[in-house]
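Project outcomes to date are best conveyed with an example. Our students and postdoctoral researchers have been running inverse folding experiments weekly, and each run begins with a structure described purely in tokens. The record below, which covers 118 residues, was selected by the lab manager from last quarter's runs and is presented without edits.
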């Protein structure tokens, strides 16, 4: 059973930084395609950042609105996924979810709230 647990969300002022963490159990993150999504209030969930498996080169990709501000990374030893967020804006306010794609299935965490105040 693959299980994901996000943490690190909270309230931060505009321009501040946060690092989200996603603890993964049941599958090595290095062998999975990993990603971060977010769902702002009243809007649909959107892909924020992704990282291919090691076999896929570990390629990263970002939605245009976060390029240069967010960085996705993983720790294969700790089996963790991270999202470093800097220069946060009010429009980054959302529930953030991590996703693991493995064994032809998608696994999601429960989400962590990020609120950016002015």
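After processing, the design step wrote out the following sequence:
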């Amino acid at each position: 059973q693959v299980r994901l647990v996000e943490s690190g969300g909270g309230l931060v002022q505009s321009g501040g930084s946060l690092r989200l963490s996603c603890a993964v159990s049941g599958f090595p993150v290095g062998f999975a395609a990993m990603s971060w999504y977010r769902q702002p209030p009243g809007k649909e969930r959107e892909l924020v950042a992704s990282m291919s498996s090691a076999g896929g080169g570990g390629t990263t990709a970002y939605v245009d609105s976060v390029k240069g501000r967010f960085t996705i990374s993983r720790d294969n030893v700790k089996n963790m996924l991270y999202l470093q967020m800097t220069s946060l804006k009010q429009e980054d306010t959302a529930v953030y979810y991590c996703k693991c794609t493995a064994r032809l299935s998608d696994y999601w965490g429960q989400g962590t709230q990020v609120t950016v105040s002015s």
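The chain is about 0% helix and 55% strand. The first strand starts at residue 3 and ends at 7. The training component of this project remains on track.
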